[in-house]
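Lab notebook, bench 4. Continuing the backlog of folding jobs that were queued last week. Each job is logged with the same field layout so the records can be merged later without manual cleanup. Today's entry covers DNA primase DnaG, a 370-residue chain. Filled in by technician R.K.

JOB TYPE: sequence-to-structure
TARGET: DNA primase DnaG
LENGTH: 370
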Amino acid sequence: MGRKNRRTKYLIMASIRADGVVHEPDVVDALFNATGGILEDLDLRGLRRNGKIGRVEVDVRTGEGVSKGSISVPSRLGKERTAMIAAAMETVGQVGSCEAEVKVGRIQDAKEAKREFIRKRAGELVEEIEKKRETPSPGRTVTEGGLEKLGGVLAGPTASESDAVIIVQNRSEVINLLSHGIKNVMAIGGSEVPPTIPKICEGRTSTAFLDGDKGGDLVLKELFKVVDLDYVARAPEGEKVENLSEKEARKALKSKVSPYECSFSRDYELGKLAEIMGELRGSLKARILDRRLNKAKETLVRNLLRELSDSRGARAVAFDGIITQRLAELASEKGLKYLVGVRERLAREPEGIEILTKRNAEGRQVEAGD
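JOB STATUS: finished
OUTPUT FIELD FOLLOWS
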């Protein structure tokens, strides 16, 4: 049998405005819920799973209490079904707890979109070539091995001129990536972020590319404090960027995610969950945690089911109580990674979620205190 045609035919281009602070995952959830509830045969979630539409891209910026952004949905369906999806997207009236409005600007033929991108990008590349000829880069000094000092930090030869920069931790990681042809890279040089890093990243697309261990977690936490990152990429669990092959490095960079979607290593997450359980011990309270395991909502245990039902984009729940079958099923439906309690009372463990208690065995234990 021949391969199915997976080529994108159309791009649905839309804008969104919300009265309040919303994040990309919230918008995606709202779109999925809107289309699934109105047109069963055009449910975005199901079509995404079956490869009929591509990844829903959302870019949201918040200012003065209002969130605005763009939405792009690649479709492999015909024009009539694509138009039906676009119309259903405009029925979104709420994202999370915020009133919102989605307006479809146009449905663009994918081939025309590619031609438009090529023309635009070609013009940008010509401008970059001209700028390189006319002006030297400030704060740039060349060192041995093709490395540079950019604003006092070690960098690859194109980092000073590129409109995108990759941030790694140390010199050996810069050298490894250079050997793989990745040159727009610069090193922090330790666990503390130099004050010049935020300035270098201004006006550029910045990606943090860090080790897949606790060390990488700590550096990422520091970067979040001072740099407005666009993307985060991680080496595979337990691996270091300096040891990655070209294939592994490029795969990790290709799999980069927005800061709202990134996660820390499992060891780090389990350690943080243990700390939270210690704080909750004896309180009869529950915490709904965001994608970085920061507190998104705290409530009494008796209100947890209701609060979790209304939540969006949560990664975990930790609470001072007993994990019931009903709560575990709801947590699985909401896409949580972890559900942590004092003990559990389950007939079966739902798929896709890790149930953790003080008494869990086989290395999955999260201590809630002595």
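OBSERVATION: The two ends are 60 Å apart (CA to CA).
SIGNED: R.K.
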